[in-house]
């Protein structure tokens, strides 16, 4: 329906209705760590793809900052190479040249105050060129120890606030390495920025299939009546990788599986799976519901950690027929490392919907297969009239949401095996993105960078979420640290993980095959 | 054809829809028995009604839309004098299913050779061939209005290109008439999408939003055959900004006139640009009563935007973006069949008033 003149007066910008690509305010994006691996593999290609699709703001600049001393042209050459190698589509030369023309570079150590003065001058020059103050977004794609350093320095240089433009900071994971460091970092961040200026990245939230969890739960009536302790027996969340640590020994040996995947990505999956329906899809409304889930999870005590958590390390084995080394034999890993490459834990969400339903998480390197999925295991039917002799019989239904690969949803149902007898076996009803949608999903970083520039925080982690995640994970870290002297569980590379993880599920339950 | 294409083909002369459908089911069943990873895509049915002698050209166009290829394409090639239905169908996946769980996602193509007499009862031929519960899109790039009309109850979406009609007014009338029964995806409208997005963005910063109420003139530059895109673009502005559309006058491919906005008149000018290669729009200038203006024009790597302030101060930059090209426009048309744009019909209604129909 066409708008009346009065409606036009009342509305902000009536031209945006119906558009798929919403306007993004004019912005200068500054990437700290612009020559790092994340920038090379993800951020620069993501920005190129936004440019290719016409999704960048009409006035856009990118300033790269890192310690390396190099010219604008050197940085442009670096960016061209990164985009050509890692973009999800072959770059269009004219668009790429246009984008590279918007790039500039400043090299300085992150603790050098004079560098921030230079940055401020550069940003002011760009504002002057455009005849208006552009929004500023600072992307901290640096080692976590530099988060507070850069944050404080931005304040000292008075770059953290502008009267006529929005200033935002995008903070990469990890937000702290334990509860204490996360609280310390939060103190620094909140001493410089208001919470609405802060965008904590968890790139899982930028994945289409993770966002589809909300669509699946809240746009289909059939699931809601089942989504509670009366019908759900337990939930398994798996993030398995078939690869080892590659060249990341330095990072991984400090981090381990629990910090690397459970504290952030897997806890996000837990909250999206367990949250109550939000009253709207506003950023804070959704995040309020997610925080309530975290608040309802009781952190385990040190004693409970012995029965509700499992950590393990892979030993040598065969993966896809090839011999691979154990974790302790990997390049760069100390021979006496007690870092876990596998972590599993059982949580319970203590509210009316979920009380008593085990939510079991497992993640690991060098497992049999790469798969990330959430499996909701329903309870068995109360009585079984059908015979099971000669078949596996009716099994409890499973709702499996696969994040990767083969993104989609599958529901297992009992069906009659063709023949003269009434025998039942489970069959799968499947939806996969590849068969049902034509569109190629954008990379998570494309969506997240654009949302941050638009000021939409829905897919970012709020401070109380980050702290809530650490509140649950921190006792496990501490308990495991105290157990460092004890022998570590092991599992063979290429296997489904340590047998000790089976006990987390409880009697009569089994892990889904990888 | 991709190197890894896995394709099964079946063909038969003087056949029936039931036999074609059974053949496709048979191929899927055989393939699935060989590998559970072989599955048929299920996004939408596209029924294309084409002249038999130009079907190769249409197949080429569809081939180039890339990932936006429909999951089942039913090409109805109309040949003069054809009395029977001859058919050819295939199921093809670009990659085979792999042992590590990767799926082979197959798309189906059915080609029917039919006679003009078949068109009036086309629904009875096509109905058994469409995948039930998927959206069905009908596209008739060579006319065949009788075929489209025959599928009005079967299809939910019609893909049209208002640039195909000889006159803008006829094109908009036909679109309006089809819109009564079907959701319209108009390629002429999609060619204006980047322009609509960029004009919306140009006025989006809070400092510039008040200027929307002061617009006093809009000039649209378009390829001479793309008047429908230009007219839909100004129809969109009129419907979104609450202007009262009035009939414009035409001289050749140029249209001029005024419409009423709340604060005064808005001069509209749709100018053909003879030097344009690609169909669609070539430039847009929006002027305000206070003397400022925003101009967007095609340029390498995107659109060149020039903003002139009331004091005469001028700034220009390029809004980055790659051209989708005509294959991209068709692919976007297929993709849009699964979406709903609430702004097209109001734009069409305003555009119809402006062409006096």
Explain how this protein is built.
The complex is a heterodimer of chains A (514) and B (357). Chain A is 35% helix and 20% strand. With 514 residues, chain A is of the alpha/beta class. In chain A, a hairpin with a 7-residue loop joins β15 (408-416) and β16 (424-432). In chain A, α9 packs across α10 and α10 packs parallel to α14 (463-482). The radius of gyration of chain A is 25 Å and the shape is globular. The mean pLDDT of chain A is 92. Chain B contains ten helices and 17 strands. In chain B, a hairpin with a 2-residue loop joins β11 and β12 (254-261). Chain B is elongated. The two termini of chain B are 46 Å apart. The mean pLDDT of chain B is 92. The interface between A and B is large, with 53 and 62 residues.
Q: Could you tell me the number of beta strands of chain A? A: 17
Shape of chain A: globular
Distance between the termini of chain B: 46 Å
Mean pLDDT of chain B: 92
User: On the 0-100 scale, what is the average pLDDT of chain A?
Assistant: 92
Which pair of chains has the greatest number of interface residues, and how are they split between the two chains? A-B, 53 and 62 residues
User: DSSP helix count of chain A?
Assistant: 14
Oligomeric assembly: heterodimer
Which characteristics define this entry?
heterodimer; A: 514 residues; alpha/beta; 17 strands; B: 357 residues; 9-stranded mixed beta sheet; 8-stranded mixed beta sheet; 32% strand
Brief account:
Chain A is α/β, with parallel strands linked by helices and 514 residues long.
Helices and strands, with pairings:
The complex is a heterodimer of chains A (514) and B (357).
Chain A: H1 5-10, E1 27-32, H2 37-52, E2 60-66, H3 72-86, H4 93-100, E3 103-107, H5 113-130, E4 135-140, H6 146-156, E5 167-171, H7 179-192, E6 198-200, H8 208-218, E7 232-240, H9 249-274, H10 283-295, H11 302-308, E8 309-315, E9 317-319, E10 322-324, E11 342-347, E12 359-364, E13 371-378, E14 398-404, E15 408-416, E16 424-432, H12 433-436, H13 444-454, H14 463-482, E17 489-492
Parallel strand pairs in A: 1-2, 1-4, 2-3, 4-5, 5-6, 7-12, 8-17
Antiparallel strand pairs in A: 7-13, 8-11, 9-10, 11-12, 13-14, 14-15, 15-16
Chain B: E1 6-12, H1 17-34, E2 38-40, E3 44-51, H2 55-63, E4 72-78, E5 86-93, E6 104-114, H3 122-126, E7 135-139, H4 145-150, E8 157-160, H5 168-178, E9 183-186, H6 187-190, H7 193-202, E10 215-222, H8 227-241, E11 249-251, E12 254-261, E13 264-272, E14 281-288, E15 293-299, E16 302-308, E17 314-320, H9 325-336, H10 344-354
Parallel strand pairs in B: 2-6, 3-4, 3-7, 4-6, 7-8, 8-9, 10-13
Antiparallel strand pairs in B: 1-5, 5-6, 10-14, 11-12, 12-13, 14-15, 15-16, 16-17
Helix pairs in contact in B: 5-10, 8-10
């Amino acid at each position: 329906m066409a708008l009346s003149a009065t409606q036009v007066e009342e509305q902000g910008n009536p031209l945006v209705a119906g558009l798929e690509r919403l306007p993004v305010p004019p912005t200068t994006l500054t990437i700290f760590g612009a020559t790092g691996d994340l920038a090379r593999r993800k951020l620069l290609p993501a920005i190129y793809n936004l440019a290719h699709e016409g999704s960048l703001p009409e006035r856009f600049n990118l300033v790269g900052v890192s310690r390396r001393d190099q010219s604008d042209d050197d940085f442009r050459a670096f960016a061209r190479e990164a985009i050509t190698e890692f973009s999800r589509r072959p770059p269009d030369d004219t668009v790429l040249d246009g984008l590279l023309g918007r790039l500039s570079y400043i090299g300085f150590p992150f603790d050098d105050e004079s560098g921030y003065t230079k940055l401020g001058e550069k940003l002011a020059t760009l504002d002057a060129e455009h005849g208006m103050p552009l929004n500023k977004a600072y992307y901290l794609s640096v080692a976590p120890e530099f988060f507070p350093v850069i944050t404080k320095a931005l304040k000292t240089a008075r770059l953290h606030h502008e009267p006529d433009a929005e200033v935002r900071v995008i903070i990469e994971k990890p937000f702290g390495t334990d509860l204490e460091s996360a609280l310390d970092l939060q103190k620094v961040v909140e001493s410089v920025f208001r919470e609405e200026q802060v965008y904590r990245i968890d790139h899982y939230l930028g994945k289409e299939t993770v966002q589809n969890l909300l669509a699946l739960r809240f746009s289909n009536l059939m699931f809601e009546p089942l989504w509670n302790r009366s019908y759900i027996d337990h939930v398994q969340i798996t993030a398995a990788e078939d690869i080892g640590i590659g060249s990341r020994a330095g990072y991984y040996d400090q981090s381990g599986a629990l910090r690397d995947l459970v504290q952030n990505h897997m806890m996000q999956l837990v909250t999206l799976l367990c949250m109550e329906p939000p009253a709207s899809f506003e950023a804070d409304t959704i995040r309020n519901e997610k925080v309530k889930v975290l608040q309802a999870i009781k952190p385990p005590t040190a004693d409970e950690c012995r029965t509700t958590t499992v950590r393990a390390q892979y030993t040598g084995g065969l993966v896809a027929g090839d011999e691979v080394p154990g974790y302790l034999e990997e390049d760069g890993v100390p021979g006496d490392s007690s870092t876990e490459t596998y972590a599993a834990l059982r949580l319970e969400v203590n509210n009316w919907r979920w009380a008593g339903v085990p939510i079991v998480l497992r993640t690991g390197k060098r497992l049999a297969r790469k798969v990330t999925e959430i499996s909701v295991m329903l309870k068995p039917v109360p009585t079984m009239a059908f015979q099971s002799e000669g078949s596996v019989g009716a099994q409890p239904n499973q709702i499996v949401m696969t994040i990767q690969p083969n993104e989609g949803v599958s529901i297992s149902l009992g069906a009659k095996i063709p023949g003269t007898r009434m025998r039942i076996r489970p069959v799968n009803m499947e939806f996969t993105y590849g068969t049902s949608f034509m569109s190629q999903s954008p990379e998570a970083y494309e969506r997240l960078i654009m949302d941050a520039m638009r000021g939409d925080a829905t897919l970012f982690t709020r401070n109380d979420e980050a702290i809530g995640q650490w509140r649950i994970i921190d006792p496990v870290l501490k308990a495991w640290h105290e157990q460092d002297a004890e022998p570590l569980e092991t599992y063979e590379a290429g296997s489904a993980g340590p047998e000790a993880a089976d006990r987390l599920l409880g009697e009569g339950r089994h892990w889904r095959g990888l | 054809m991709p190197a890894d294409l896995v394709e099964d083909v079946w063909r038969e002369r003087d056949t029936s829809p039931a036999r074609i459908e059974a053949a496709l089911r048979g191929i899927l069943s055989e393939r699935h028995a060989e590998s559970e990873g072989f599955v048929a895509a299920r996004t939408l049915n596209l029924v294309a009604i084409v002249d038999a002698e130009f079907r190769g050209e249409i197949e080429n166009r569809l081939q180039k839309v890339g990932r936006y290829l429909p999951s089942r394409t039913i090409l109805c090639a109309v040949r003069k004098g054809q009395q029977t239905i001859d058919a050819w169908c295939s199921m093809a996946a670009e990659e085979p299913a792999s042992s590590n769980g990767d799926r082979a996602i197959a798309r189906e193509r059915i080609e029917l050779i039919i006679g003009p007499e078949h068109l009036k009862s086309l629904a009875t031929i096509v109905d058994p061939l469409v995948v039930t519960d998927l959206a069905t899109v009908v596209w008739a790039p060579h006319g065949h209005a009788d075929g489209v009309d025959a599928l009005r109850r079967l299809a939910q979406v019609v893909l049209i290109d208002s640039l195909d009609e000889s006159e803008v007014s006829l094109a908009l009338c036909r679109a309006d008439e089809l819109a009564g029964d079907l959701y319209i995806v108009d390629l002429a409208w999609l060619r204006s999408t980047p322009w609509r997005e960029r004009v919306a963005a140009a006025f989006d910063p809070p400092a510039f939003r008040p200027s929307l109420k002061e617009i006093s003139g809009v000039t649209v530059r378009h390829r001479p055959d793309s008047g429908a895109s230009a007219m839909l673009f100004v129809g969109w502005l009129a419907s979104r900004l609450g202007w009262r559309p009035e009939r414009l006058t035409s001289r050749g491919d140029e249209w001029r006139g005024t419409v009423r906005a709340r604060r005064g008149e808005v001069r509209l000018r749709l100018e053909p640009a003879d030097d344009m290669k690609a169909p669609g729009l070539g430039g847009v200038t929006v002027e305000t009563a206070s003397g400022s203006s925003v101009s967007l024009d095609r340029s390498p790597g995107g659109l060149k935007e020039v903003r002139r302030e009331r004091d005469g101060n001028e700034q220009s930059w390029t809004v980055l973006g790659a051209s989708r090209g005509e294959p991209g426009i068709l692919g976007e048309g297929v993709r849009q069949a699964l979406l709903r744009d609430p702004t097209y019909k109001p734009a069409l209604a305003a555009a119809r008033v402006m062409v006096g129909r």
